[in-house]
Amino acid sequence: MDAIKSRKLIAKNTVMLYFRQIFLLAVNLYSIRVILTTLGTVDYGIYNVIAGIVTTFNFLSVAMSSATQRFYSFFLGKDDFDGLQKVFCITVEIYIFIILIVVAASETAGLWFVQNKLLIPLERMDAAKSVFHLVVISFASNLFSTPFLALIISHENMNVYAFISISEGVLKLASVLLLRVISFDSLVMYGFLLAAISVIIAFAYYSWCRKSYTECRFSLQWDKVQLQEILSFSGWCLFGTCAGIAKNQITNILLNMFFGPVVNAARGIAYNVNSAVSSFSANFNMAVRPQIIKTYSVNEKNTSFDLVFQSTKLSYFLLWIFMCPLFLEMHYVLKLWLTNVPDMSVTFTRLILIEVLFDSVSYPLQSLSQASGKMKLYQSVVGGVLLLNLPLAYLALKKGFDAYCVQYIAIVIAFVALLLRIIINSVLTDLQVSLFIRKALFPSILASFLSAILPCVFHFSMAESFLRLSAVVASSTVLIGLFGYFLILNRMEKEKVKMFIVSRIRQAGVSR
Fold this sequence. Notes:
By secondary structure, the chain is mainly alpha-helical. It contains 17 helices and no strands. The longest helix has 53 residues, at 3-55.
């Protein structure tokens, strides 16, 4: 695929994923409000901490997902169908084994932990255990769908991914609305409906891949060399993924042990906001990642580096569009959204947004390191630093610091990890550090600083109101668009924007 076609495909897939995300964002924002009202703060906190225990095992899935997408894209880039089919069969076998491990560990050690270690009101313990079993079903279904989803993404069929994701969002919205009319324990029913949806979506991914891709034909495979390569790659990914799981889910458990479910509810709100905002940036990287790996697989390093530079800027830029006004007006936005805002939600959300800003810059660097296939140095150093989140958070809480300390620690570590990713990629892939700073980091930082000045003036000079929110949103949107055009886009992209605007103006003139 030539450069022009690949950029057009990236743009098309990005638009498709953004349409998906805007829809899901609206659904999620409304759903969380209804869920919080229906379940109440305590039950909502219980669900979050229980889901966190099961998804602690997500490190297995995430590590394998990274490896799966990397090998699928690598063989697609080299047009090696036999290698692709062999990798598909081997990864499915590995996922089946992982599912068995997760179910066994969850229903033994996980269930014991729920019953004996979590701070759950006695009258809600039976409901909590029922939800735990349902969350295990949901998680197992999601694990099963992962190799098929990876195949869709590697083929860059984002329209299929978007359609199935939107269908999932519609089903989840329907399940939330059903909670209001079903006369049964709302917490248990919520877990049941989500489990049923997970099974349906897993079957949808499987059916599409089976119908559309000839390599999606499972048979028992044994290739020791290929298996070792996949396991070695995913093993080092596993090490890094453990840090992310520890930071998010095990930290959530620590907060429950020190402060109870009310703090879990506040942090749950914060992570829902974070997920909605950061997904715009993550979706763009999902669209560009296969191209970074495919160009690197055929030794087109300069093309791969250019994609990293540009996707870093755009990833940061697409997150900043939402983060700037949201960070300033967080209290008012949460009040409009939830009416009754759980204590500590505002500060937790702001701190998590700062952390994810560093992560947004890291996405393309992660894709580049995965393209190289040399994960030992990368994950041993970066993953080792990220794992410091858990012991530092525990020590800080043990010393009597407030709940926010876990996020301050996470921000500092995220910044250090970003610096390490840049340096290590220079060793693994010959990426020039100075070039990355000049072409990616500096324009992004300058654009965000300049675009924040006027919104800050409105925020600090006006009383909290819808008028102030409108002023902050409007000014930040205009300025981010303006500085993004001059500092983020390259010359070719600026010309395309100009041509698009001119063509629209001419079309408008003709229609009159």
